[in-house]
């Protein structure tokens, strides 16, 4: 239906344009003449050649040569078109004079314009029609470019969403692998803590299943998730674990991407080392100078090679996608300490849904 309306509108505009051209010819050629019937008849002989060469330039020469930057061929064929059209206009004028002669009244001036002005008048109309076509081509080209840009942006957005979904999916096996390994060890040892650990893991899985697909979750939920994970690890490490967790000056309405912080904590437990009888982990989350700040330190072997792991690679990609130019991530090792600091700008912060 839209195509039919579009075609009908195009046809209607063309009809009105050529009616306007015909009116121009009758006014231009008959100005000062009283023989209106002769002028109208003569004007009708000029219309076919005007329409034919206007559409030939608009529909063939311009799109096939000029718009494709084939300038030499455009000038060549344009020259041929000018020569042929000149001859055709002369023939039209000749036939107009001959076949309209029966309408000529004795001793009356039927045309007030010379042959040269008539030819110039025809070319003037062709130039106007061509100029209008350029405006239309430019307008349609802009619309096409905008549509193309929108399609590219939509495709990029879909790719971004797919990549982000893939990154989220990578969290599942990484997290589950660490947690199930812990429970497996307890089950083998037939320890009483195994059921409680399964319950803790159930809570964490509930968080993953129902929150991971959301673009953003309350920071409170993410921090509670971290506390559940730490509780799970405490059962594994018993008295060899020292954990200090502190949450300061945090707004209740703050949101973050789900499972954004847990990879840091996972890596702390996975790659941390027991020094002087303890695995030491310090976690601090706070708001400071318009930034959400997350800091974590864990003990590690001094000469141990730095290990990235799936978690840190994952988190860097997600941060770049969700908080581009609005975050700072510092990861380094000093002596027996591995240190991570993440800052996310909160000033003029949009919701995660808009990220």
Automatic annotation (TrEMBL):
InterPro entries per record: Bact_2-comp_sensor_kinase, HATPase_C_sf, Sig_transdc_His_kin_internal
Source organism of the structure: Pseudotenacibaculum haliotis
Protein name as catalogued: Sensor histidine kinase
One annotated GO molecular function: protein histidine kinase activity
Residue runs in coiled coils: 143-170
PANTHER family, per the entry: SENSOR HISTIDINE KINASE YPDA
Database matches in Pfam families: His_kinase (PF06580)
UniProt keywords, alphabetically: Coiled coil, Kinase, Membrane, Transferase, Transmembrane, Transmembrane helix
Annotated transmembrane regions: 7-25, 45-62, 74-95, 115-140
